[in-house]
Predict the structure.
Amino acid sequence: QVQLLQSGPDLVRPGSSVKISCKASGYAFTNYWLGWIKQRPGHGLEWIGDIYPGSGNTYYNEKFKGKATLTADKSSGTAFMQLSGLTSEDSAVYFCARMSLYGMDYWGQGTSVTVSS
Amino acid sequence: DIVMTQSQKFMSTSVGDRVSITCKASQNVRSAVVWYQQKPGQSPKALIYLASNRHTGVPDRFTGSGSGTDFTLTISNVQSEDLADYFCLQHWNYPYTFGGGTKLEMK
């Protein structure tokens, strides 16, 4: 069955960076776009961008350009999102989700990032 | 960007009721809409894809309808386990955008 397993919670300092991982299993990792989504209480869900692991092609929400960098390692079936220049506004739960013709159909369990000094 | 508007932030219901949750797109998104259910501490679960198709394993009391700019998720015979947040997503154009969510509560 399709599974997306994300890395654990992170507590990071303002101004630093964090890298979240999303390990895929149960499907052909290189054949599907994989997206990243941010969720904060009171701010709903925001699509950050997605990556096609087969080619490394990416699309970013303009709002997150310069903030998020998406990569993927085909050998391990793992996608990564690095967030840089962290502020309190980046404290959120981040999800990865497989993207098919039918939208984001399978989601990871979420990774909580807390930015605090 | 396409704005997806769920005008009802909260809806109250009772077990056995029928409830309709709406989502309006600021532009034509054809049928590229997904409905999700999210319970506290969990990731969103896809219920309906392409506006009106039920995902495998989703109970048939969940029905999606609409195309273009107006979409509806209807839950018939509401069960207690249906109390959750519901979101719509458009994936017709980048950037993909979500509705603000509707919280289904018990009366």
In short: The interface with chain A takes residues 32-34, 43-46, 49-50, 53, 55, 87, 89, 91, 94-101 of chain B (CB under 8 Å).
